[in-house]
Design brief:
- The protein is an alpha/beta fold.
- 36% of the residues lie in helices and 14% in strands.
- It is built from 13 helices and 13 strands.
- The relative contact order is 0.16.
Length: 410
């Protein structure tokens, strides 16, 4: 079996050993969970005065809200049962008028924009820049009298142009909502990106850099907005009043004490894990410098730290007619390198979203977002587990890439 031949065509793969398993857990995670189990107190409700619905600070949920809020540098936080719930809660809290416009990115996961359709808001899409994020220089031209908010994603953990976007929002009196699902350790000018937004949401789903299986978080600085969202996430109960009264059309987005327990002990590991990811990101940047096939997205100031949810590789233009991101991901996976091709459809082309746009409209939109279209066709995402692995493991990524390059250079 040839080592030079691509594994997809019968050659020997670069590696068969799996990369770092995820999540990483310790005795502390197990002990904390067992303590919650034995206590019989599995929800926040046990700590709440049923005669007077109020914020409490004894539960694991409350402890996490306080610790994670301090980590972000925001005043208030609400721990919920998923990142998707956090996004829906954000727009339920804003309570924008039906038909209001929200400027956002077409290159994202469906959950980012799903609340816009749910609350009958109109997404107004803007192309992305070469970091994969919404292009801050294109936002202002899309603002109309109906525009009420800007919704951004820090793609794969690369910080958006926060100073420019925040300035635009302030000048035009727009809410800034941030999808920080990839941005646990994401800083702009040495400040966590969450500190720039009106509302910033996080996901603690199984693949995320802070993982409790499922979970989410809403970070906010405005007290009234916090109180409204805290009510909505718990059946519409008003803070400070009888728990059986309900003042908001609401959902139940409450998490369990088990989720909070894991999130707390996993939060203790974030800094050490992030140092490992940064080290390997720098190594990959170095090893991919001047690579003929692929171009990495290098962190540039004023972005000061990457969220490191994924490491993105762009197929260079001279190879894009020969090789797609989807095809490259298949090659690399069969060589033993875990990866995927990211968002292979822009969100308005997803099956659910097609009901809002005619075929002609979507064709026109495709022509308006050339960078986003290129990213959807010519990108590979390496998961953060590779960044947690050893230097030798990272070098195997380059060996696999070079096998693909040799195949296309023949």
């Amino acid at each position: 079996m040839s080592r030079d031949k691509l594994a997809l065509f019968g050659g020997m793969p670069v590696r068969e050993k799996p990369y770092t398993t995820w999540p990483e857990f310790s005795d502390a995670d197990c002990e904390n969970l067992l303590q919650i189990l034995k206590s019989g107190v599995w929800s926040r409700a046990k700590y709440t005065n049923h005669l007077k619905f109020q914020y409490e600070n004894e539960s694991e949920i409350a402890k996490f809200e306080q610790r994670f809020g301090s980590f972000l540098g925001t005043r208030y936080g609400i721990f919920v049962n998923s990142g998707t719930s956090a996004l829906h809660l954000a727009f339920a809290g804003l309570d924008l008028k039906e038909g209001s416009e929200v400027i956002t990115t077409p290159y994202t996961f469906f959950s980012t924009i799903a609340p816009l359709y749910k609350y009958r808001l109109k997404p107004v899409f803007v192309d992305i820049d070469e970091s994969g994020n919404i292009d801050g220089g294109l936002i202002e031209a899309k603002i109309t009298s109906k525009t009420k908010a800007v919704l951004i994603l820090h793609c794969a953990g690369y910080p958006c142009d926060m100073e420019k976007i925040k300035r635009i929002c302030e000048e035009h009196n727009l809410f800034l909502v941030q999808d920080c699902a990839h941005a646990i350790s994401c800083n702009y000018n040495h400040k966590h990106v969450a500190s720039f937004g009106d509302i910033s949401i996080f996901s603690f789903e199984a693949s995320k850099n802070l993982n409790c299986g499922e979970g989410g978080f809403v970070a906010v600085n405005d007290e009234k907005l916090f109180e409204r969202m805290f009510s909505i996430q718990s059946c519409g109960r008003p803070l400070g009043e009888d728990w059986r009264s309900h003042i908001n059309m609401s959902e139940n987005y409450r998490p369990t004490e088990f989720q909070a327990s894991i999130a707390l002990t996993q939060l203790d590991k974030v800094q050490d894990q992030e140092e490992r990811r940064i080290k390997n990101r720098i190594l990959l940047d170095k090893l991919l410098k001047d690579n003929p096939l692929l171009e990495p997205i290098i962190l540039k100031k004023p972005a000061t730290s990457h969220g490191n949810y994924s490491y993105l590789l762009i197929i260079k233009k001279e190879y894009q007619s020969l090789l797609s991101g989807k095809r490259l991901a298949i090659y690399l996976e069969t060589e033993g390198i875990p990866c995927h091709c990211g968002y292979k459809e822009l969100v308005y082309n997803l099956k659910f979203c097609k009901q809002f746009y005619s075929d002609e409209m979507r064709r026109e939109m495709n022509s308006q977002f050339p960078t986003a279209m290129r990213f959807s066709k010519s990108l590979v995402w390496l998961p953060q587990t590779i960044l947690l692995s050893s230097a030798e493991d990272v070098e195997d990524v380059i060996k696999a890439i070079n096998k693909v390059l040799e195949y296309y250079s023949k």
